[in-house]
Amino acid sequence: MHFTSELRLDGGVLEREFTLGEIPGTLWTPGSEPAPLILMAHNNGLPKGDSRLVARARHSAAHGYAVATIDARGCGDRPRSAADEQARADLRRAMQAGEPVDEIFESFIGPLVEKAVPEWRTTLDALLSLPEIGGPVGFSGWTALGIRLVVVEPRIAAAGFFAGGYVPRAQREEARQVTVPLLFLLQWDDEGNPRQRALDLFDAFGTKEKTLHANLGGHTGTPWFEAEDGGRFYDRHLR
Amino acid sequence: MHFTSELRLDGGVLEREFTLGEIPGTLWTPGSEPAPLILMAHNNGLPKGDSRLVARARHSAAHGYAVATIDARGCGDRPRSAADEQARADLRRAMQAGEPVDEIFESFIGPLVEKAVPEWRTTLDALLSLPEIGGPVGFSGWTALGIRLVVVEPRIAAAGFFAGGYVPRAQREEARQVTVPLLFLLQWDDEGNPRQRALDLFDAFGTKEKTLHANLGGHTGTPWFEAEDGGRFYDRHLR
Questions:
Q1: Which fold, B2-78+116-238?
Q2: Nearest CB to A216; choose among B208, B214, B225
Q3: Element (H, E) at A203
Q4: Residue B228 and residue A229: Cβ atoms within 8 Å?
Q5: How many helices (H) and strands (E) does chain A have?
Q6: Which residue of B207, B211, B225 is in closest CB contact with A213?
Q7: CB contacts < 8 Å between A and B, how many?
Q8: Is B77 on the interface with A (CB under 8 A)?
Q9: What's residue B88's pLDDT?
């Protein structure tokens, strides 16, 4: 893990860009150490530098968590294959036309999740070797990746998932294997995530300790107080 | 309003039983005044002295709220008519037998809500005349009553509703007139409140600012952290 920049924020939070082989990432660490860790995996359509994601990460770091995010292969600012670009274009066109998108979605997001998982695990290994990071480890964000990651990665002790209307078949089937405490956050009118599917997914998770939060509005309309609610969820399970 | 008993709790909270005409109630007030007020309307099957309700009220009062609850006509420890007793018995039997309960429920809960509303408004008048209570006013608990009350009572500025699977037709129709900020809390496997109906009701509320919380388990299984989340909801809207 090679740190390429360093920014000291108010409240003692240190924000550092890093590279780990081909993987670009950002790590926020609080003043106190060793800190519990939150893996903040963003929706593949957003770069890790998206301002809302950065605001959430800084908020969590200011409350005593180390937070890390990466652009996994094909995500954020990472190069995309011509096939990926085509699939994204097809998906956008089909959604705008109101056509069924399941198969496009499946062929596009399924492999993206498969490619992201080993990169996140490699990142987790590197993060946990840093003296400023202790544990336990929580996951936050991208539902499809999160399902896969908590199923294969016993070091993740709690998970906050967002949206979850479109999740590849493999992860929908794995949902019952998710047994860590779970906070599932969705937007009631999420234009890209059918509500009933998200509710069905919540129902399917195997964990006994699951909480659903939903707010009115579209995909990007999540109210800020959900960041604070999320913080308290991690406080209950990672402290 | 006639106070009949007084108990001083740790943290300076004063817990007083009162009567207001025929209406028996309990009022919790914090050390500081004048305090914002939460009307904590319990499910009609529970007496106001139920230990979980009392614990929630004490928690809110310790955080600076005046909290009031009453046993409205036919609720809690108040005398019930022979017809009410019969309806309750019919309802219990039908639910146990897995028979449709809508009509029994309608004929039983509909009038209960109608009778409770004026008693709650009379109580609100009396509470707001006390120097230790300022405002604004929030509602917490029984969904059917809460819908009716916030529609007719402009003094209520925010509402937390619980369960809401069985709500009389009149209140289901009024749901779109609910325009105050809303926290709707349900139990995912509530044996007495069909999930889909509760979700449909959440969808129907007219307010732009509505949040759904759901947790795994049956009617009485709400985790304690929801009392704290509820507290933060009122903090956002009543402070």
A1: Rossmann fold (3.40.50)
A2: B208
A3: helix A195-204
A4: no
A5: 7, 9
A6: B211
A7: 48
A8: no
A9: 84
CA-closest candidate to residue B70, choices B29, B46, B41, B30: B41
Residue B174 has pLDDT above 90, yes or no: yes
* pTM of the model as a whole: 0.93
pLDDT (tens digit per residue) in A176-190: 999 999 999 999 999
Q: Of B216, B228, B232, which is closest to A208 when you measure between CB atoms?
A: B216
- Report d(CA A32, CA A38) in Å as an integer: 15
Residues of A in contact with B199 (CB under 8 A): 199
- How far A138 CA lies from chain B's nearest CA (Å)? 19
pLDDT tens readout for residues B55-77: 999 999 999 999 999 999 888 88
pLDDT grade for B83, boundaries at 50, 70 and 90 = confident
Residues of A in contact with B202 (CB under 8 A): 188, 214
Q: Chain B residue with minimal CA distance to A230?
A: B229
Domain boundaries, chain B: 2-78+116-238
- Choose among A202, A207, A214: nearest Cβ to B211: A214
∠ CA B216-B219-B222, nearest 5°, is 55
How distant, in Å, are the alpha carbons of A37, A152, A168, A181, B97 from that of A158? 11, 13, 21, 5, 39
Chain B contact present for A235, CB below 8 A = no
φ/ψ of residue A98, rounded to 5 = 70, 20
Say whether residue B236 is in contact with chain A using an 8 A CB cutoff.
yes
A231 vs A128: CA distance, rounded Å: 21
pLDDT in tens, A75-93: 888 888 888 888 888 888 9
Asked whether the beta carbons of residue A199 and residue B199 sit closer than 8 angstroms, the reply is yes
User: What is the DSSP-derived secondary structure letter of residue A12?
Assistant: G
Topology (CATH level 3) of domain A2-80+113-238: Rossmann fold (3.40.50)
pLDDT at position A31, please? 84
Report the percent of chain B where pLDDT is more than 70: 99
